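User: Here's a structure from my thesis project, written as structure tokens. My advisor, Dr. K., wants to see whether a designed sequence matches the one we expressed. Can you design one independently, without my sequence as a hint?
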């Protein structure tokens, strides 16, 4: 099971919708989270993208030297950057990080943000551009291993002699991740990407997505892997976890929720529409499936659901998604530094998941504090 964490380059806090308990997100704090994820045994970290975030490529590059095995899931933005430039950036990052790059293909669902970046096209045109972008991007990197180049003449994008003189370490290119809930998105995923990511919808809805994409991919002679993006609120008891969920939104007023939902309603993203429909902007029915809580989505765009419970309960829900075919789990929680530790310490023992090399190599005396300065601490039974 591939379990990754999240770097909150758009801000971090203890309570949603307020500056109380908020964190200054600077390089030092991001390094703390990245190093924690690396040493705790997370496979990688996802970096968000868009005008509300620090630039994902710059942040990820700044963290290469602070980490050892952590992978970085970094976005490319078709239509905003050229496929040739994006391919060379990916190849460079992959070499400098010793093959630790994964690519998140973000087509975008906020037309006002895209127009601010110079892209004036409708929903389906964005996916058509993304399709052509990926054909060029993949072609340049695949051919770079043999010193080749590509020509491509599409409806939206062209490349003549596109090449990268320095190939990536990963062949033919770093793996492509992608999310989207519309038919156009599903068709693109089936044709082009390696891992399809869904936001945390109830298991029945996720199963329907997976079945549709598998059917489309099979028609093209392809298979792909599946992942899910979820927040998590885990504590030692279910009662404590639900109390923490209530506390997370305890400073939200109805006006703040209404403002956020009004912004989300302007998006033409099908995934955002589905997230908003899970709660309808109301606080009174936020548990939308067993232990799946939609409170985060009251004011946060994108992934808006969290698994809530004690370690055994959260692990059981993760296994339910795994049984549907989900292999990659990209988790997050507030604040991101503390919750990375909670999730790793409480839930990892219940998952078929690799443990970090550091924890494997530690001597018993180094795990936990000595009792009375004399005795080794009792070993946990898990």
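Assistant: Designed independently from the structure alone:
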């Amino acid at each position: 099971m591939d379990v990754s964490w999240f770097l909150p380059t758009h801000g971090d806090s203890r309570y949603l919708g307020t500056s109380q308990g908020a964190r200054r997100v600077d390089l030092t704090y991001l390094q703390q989270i990245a190093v924690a994820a690396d040493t705790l045994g997370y496979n990688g970290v996802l970096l968000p993208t868009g005008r509300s975030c620090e630039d994902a490529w710059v942040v990820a590059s700044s963290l290469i030297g602070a980490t050892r095995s952590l992978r970085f899931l970094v976005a490319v933005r078709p239509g905003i950057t050229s496929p040739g430039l994006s391919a060379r950036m990916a190849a460079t990052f992959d070499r400098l990080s010793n093959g630790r790059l994964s690519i998140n293909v973000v087509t975008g669902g906020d037309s006002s943000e895209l127009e601010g970046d110079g892209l004036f096209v409708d929903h389906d045109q964005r996916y058509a551009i993304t399709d052509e972008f990926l054909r060029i991007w993949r072609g340049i990197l695949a051919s770079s291993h043999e010193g080749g180049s590509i020509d491509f003449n599409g409806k939206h994008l062209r490349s003549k002699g596109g090449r990268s003189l320095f190939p990536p370490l990963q062949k033919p290119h770093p793996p492509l991740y992608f999310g989207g809930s519309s038919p156009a998105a599903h068709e693109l995923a089936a044709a082009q990407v390696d891992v399809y990511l869904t936001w945390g919808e109830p298991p029945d809805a996720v199963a329907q997505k997976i079945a549709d994409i598998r059917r489309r991919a099979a028609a093209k002679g392809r298979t792909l892997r599946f992942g899910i993006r979820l927040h998590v609120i885990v504590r030692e008891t279910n009662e404590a976890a639900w109390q923490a969920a209530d506390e997370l939104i305890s400073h939200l007023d109805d006006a703040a929720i209404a403002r956020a939902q009004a912004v989300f309603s302007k998006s033409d993203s099908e995934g955002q529409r589905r997230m908003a429909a899970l709660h309808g902007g109301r606080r009174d029915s936020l548990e939308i499936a067993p232990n799946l809580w939609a409170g985060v989505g009251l004011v946060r765009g994108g992934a808006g659901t969290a698994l809530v419970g004690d370690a055994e309960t959260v692990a059981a829900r993760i296994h339910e998604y795994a049984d549907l075919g989900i292999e990659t789990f990209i988790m997050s929680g507030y604040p991101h530094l503390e919750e990375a530790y909670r999730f790793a310490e409480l839930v990892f023992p219940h998952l078929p998941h690799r443990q970090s090399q550091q924890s494997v190599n530690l001597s018993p005396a180094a795990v936990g504090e000595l009792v009375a300065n004399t005795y080794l601490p009792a070993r946990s039974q898990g």
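When you compare it with your expressed construct, this may help: DSSP finds 13 helices and 13 strands in the chain.
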